[in-house]
Design brief:
By secondary structure, the protein is mainly α. It contains 6 helices and no strands.
Length: 181
């Protein structure tokens, strides 16, 4: 056997092995790339599900905040026998501020419009309380402020700011849900 025959004999086995190795390597690489992409998509989908849950929780918390600062709910919760108008006014304002601070982090999950609405409602509710309380003697009974606030709410033909905000929050939450479905 000559050197050329030996080389040809070796190439006869090596070339098919190299072709099989290249084909196998290509198939395995494509499989791994597809599998990696599938896992990446799965992780992305899980992240979207988590984000959706967090956003919906934010809408729930902001809706609850709007309900809690509504004068019909807030005044009976804060009123105590023996309070003066000034005491009740201070308690109402303090409660609105504390509830707001408790919900500050929700702004990262909702639109700028919803958050501005929440901020605006907080300011309007506090201004309304201060306006009505300003008409009364600060040392008078808190019952007077309570009654004046009820009269103000009843006589107000427009929706209260917290009611408008609830509608804005609900509409955006429904929009988010419809985009996910």
């Amino acid at each position: 056997m000559t050197a050329l025959q030996t080389i040809l004999e070796i190439l006869k086995y090596i070339i098919p092995a190299i072709i099989v190795l290249i084909a196998t390597s290509t198939i395995v690489r494509k499989f791994l790339v597809n599998e990696t992409e599938r896992k990446r998509l799965s992780i992305f989908q899980q992240g979207m599900d988590t984000t959706l849950r967090l956003r919906l929780q934010a809408y729930e918390r902001l809706a609850l905040y709007m309900e809690r600062i509504h004068p019909r709910v807030l005044i009976p919760r804060m009123y105590e026998t023996g309070m003066t108008t000034r005491d009740l006014q201070t308690a109402l304002i303090q409660s609105i501020k504390m509830e707001y601070e408790h919900n500050l982090s929700q702004q990262i999950y909702v639109s700028a419009q919803v958050w501005k609405t929440v901020q605006s409602v907080k300011e309007q509710e506090m201004a309304m309380i201060n306006q009505v309380a300003g008409l009364l003697n600060p040392d008078s009974s808190a019952k007077e402020l309570h009654q004046k606030m009820i009269d103000f709410i009843i006589s107000n033909e427009n929706d209260l700011p917290s009611e408008v905000a609830l509608e804005v929050i609900n509409n955006e939450a429904k929009l988010v849900l419809s985009q996910q479905g």
